Amino acid sequence: MAAGGHALRAVGDVVFLGAYGRLSFPATIAAFVEALLQAWAEVRAGLVVPLLRAAVVLCTAMSVIVLAEKLFLGAVSLVMKLRRRRPWRVYRCDPIARPDEEAAAYPMVLVQIPMYNEKEVYQLSIGAACRLTWPVDRLIVQVLDDSTDAVIKELVKGECERWAAEGINVKYETRKDRAGYKAGNLKEGMRHAYVRGCEFVAMFDADFQPAPDFLVKTVPFLVHNPSLALVQTRWKFVNANDCLLTRMQEMSMDYHFKVEQEAGSSLCNFFGYNGTAGVWRTQAIVESGGWEDRTTAEDMDLALRAGLLGWEFVYVGSIKVKSELPSTLKAYRSQQHRWSCGPALLFKKMFWEILAAKKVSVWKKLYMIYDFFIARRIIGTFFTFFFFSVLIPLNILLPEVQIPVWELIYIPTAIILLNSVGTPRSIHLIILWVLFENVMALHRFKAILIGFFEADRANEWIVTQKLGNLQKLKSIASLTGNYHFKDSSLVSESPKTDQSQDTIESFGCNIMIAQMKVQKIASETQPMYLDVRVVYRRSDLAGRVDRAHAATASASVVASTAPAATNPSRAVGRARRSLRGCAVRESPGASEHGPPPPPAPVAALAVTNPVMGNGGFSGRSGLHHG
């Protein structure tokens, strides 16, 4: 073959992994293959390579835009921090009234908690809202229950009635259907007559647990500054250390709050409402048209409409509200679909409305359109997907297309480092985070296209799965291989015996008991049984405030062995080592010489089990008899 033939042979070697050059074919097949290779060479030179070079130019422009946006926001956040420009230095936030003044000096506040089949966490959010430090007669806790499970509805209703019996003004509200999902639920909640007297509305998702002083710290901003419509606080993740998935999410969310929200609040008093852990002025909600269910980003929708009317927002990062990150990939993917699809559809619907707004400056319009939507949510996702998942792999196959080193290495490295500034403790996970974000970029890119073109899943709403206390119960159950969790229940795989119990209810029980069989801990032939009792006991956390109480989670593990078994102290030590993540201490009476008499030889452990440790409950521990 001539030079051209050698070139075709080289292409064939690449395509067929070297096999083409080593195999002989019949004349007709060889001619057909040569024709295909010739056609591919022409298409490659005339179409594929030029398109790929254009893609390199496009990705170069997108990378510069993304880097410039992150440098700009990072610089703003850094300058604000160096200048000590805190929200309380810009906006007045003096205490509303002195402790000795009457409660009438406090404004009426409505606390909304929308939920849907939240059996794992409903007690956490309702309890935290009812323990807020605020005059009882100036606070209404509204539980908006969209649950379809009758058992869960009864549990939520019972929890509301329990708090109502203690003097808290709790309203349990349901509706006939789930029209509009969360937005429809909130809209329906605002229609009740008692809401008209509430000046401010605080909102929490079912897995959020505000500290008792949340309203005391946030409401004064709205009381003393009539131009403010929203006070947004930061999320604190109680399960950030549970797994690698939650660590990756923490890095992204910390950057969002510490940089994006902080910069938006400082630059033009505008940012996207996060849908929870914020306090709204009721007047601003009404003037903006209330909640809209036209997209899955109802929180951003309301914030945009309020911002276009001239209302100001303030982000207070020093106030943190406990919440839960999705701990399964399925839950995280559904959440990211909603968070990517909703803003894309909202941008399409509100683009001209933003341009035509008369009550905001040109600078604020530019920030909304370019930075808030295009650079951050559209170009950022497009660049990550095309550059890392499309362009670089194709460049390996087509080496004649060159990607500049500064675009291939320097810009991505700078973007990655800027993203990691929010979570310095996870800097060693940055490579894994890059891989994780590249995988999720395809999912987000698809969601953006679905939202922009209003495809079938544009308004799909899947409630993010929450584990709450179930995750902690699983850690206890990990002591044995004879049980596994299924559908929030602990199901026995072994035949039922006197020492085992079929199920453990993970939702709403005052007392939850799981008796788990652990094989071959005390000896090689005789099993040892762990009797784990997780008990919620009420305790007064607020001192003189009678209504403030919480659940103290305590667990006791009683390890029983047969008289001929191994030294009980060794069994105690092995059981202690098995209880990972729990602080274990021997109960009074247990020692290296064996358990106290009677009954028969028993080695007792008292376990400080953080079943509710991240839920704002006290951590008292002790041996529970019963």
From TrEMBL:
Pfam families: Glyco_trans_2_3 (PF13632). Residues 201-399 form the Glycosyltransferase 2-like domain. One of its GO terms (molecular function) is glucomannan 4-beta-mannosyltransferase activity. Residues 561-571 have a biased composition (Low complexity). It is found in: Golgi apparatus membrane. It comes from the Eukaryota. It catalyses: GDP-mannose + (glucomannan)n = GDP + (glucomannan)n+1. This is glucomannan 4-beta-mannosyltransferase. It comes from Miscanthus lutarioriparius.
